[in-house]
Write a structure and sequence with these properties.
The chain is mostly helical. 76% of the residues lie in helices and 0% in strands. It is rod-shaped.
């Protein structure tokens, strides 16, 4: 028996679309989770259930990793922008003192 798979395409982290990418990935995560629940209660034979569940769990982990990567990229961008603003602010004070 062949097990059908739902493929997930990777989403590249980007600050401008990060939130919408996360929302899409969260939706995909919910769908995969529901599909996994459906496998448990399905009438497939035990081996097919196990293979399908294993595939779905791997996809769920991949989507979770993508969400984490986007969140980390957003945090890094936020930290870099704060450092840049702080440095500019300090330089402004330094030049006004001379």
């Amino acid at each position: 028996m062949q097990v059908a798979s739902t493929t997930s395409s990777p989403v590249k982290p980007s600050s401008s679309s990060g939130s919408s990418d996360i929302a899409k990935l969260q939706k995909q995560l919910r769908e995969l989770t529901e599909e996994l629940k459906g496998v448990v209660s399905s009438d497939m034979d035990a081996k097919a259930k196990q293979e399908k569940a294993k595939l779905l769990q791997a996809q769920i982990q991949m989507v979770q990793a993508q969400i984490t990567a986007i969140q980390r990229a957003q945090q890094q961008e936020q930290q870099l922008s704060q450092v840049a603003v702080s440095y500019t602010h300090l330089r402004a004070h330094e030049t006004s003192l001379h």
